[in-house]
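User: Predict structure, ligand FE2/S2 (inorganic) cluster.
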Amino acid sequence: MAKEITLNFKLADGEVRTVDAVVGDSVMETAIKNDIDDVVAECGGSLICATCHVYVSDETAAIIDEADDTELDMLEGTSAERRDNSRLSCQIFVTEAMEGHTFETPESQ
Ligand code: FES
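Assistant: Predicted complex:
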C-alpha cells in the first residue's frame, strides 16, 4: 500500500485544511484529490498553465528540488503575485520528509 503523510493547505481566506497525501503524488494531485479548490491545475500537470501556483515554506524549500527553467518561465505568468517562494505544485512531489508541511495558496489562479 502506498505510504501516506499529512500535509496542510493554507487557503487564501486563511482556512487551514489538513489532508492525507500519498508519497510520490504531486502536491497538485494531492490538492485536487482533497478538493482544495484554490488549486485549479487546468493543464493537469503538463507545466503549461501556472494555475497550480502555491507558496512554499522555508522548511519545504529546503527539501525539494529547485524550479527548472520551464517552471521558472511559467511562474512569470501567475495570476496572483509571484513571490520568492512561488512554485508550481505539479512540479513538487510528496516525500515522507514533508510530513506536516504547509502549502499556501494564492489569492487567484
Ligand atoms: S497544473 Fe498546469 S502548470 Fe501545474
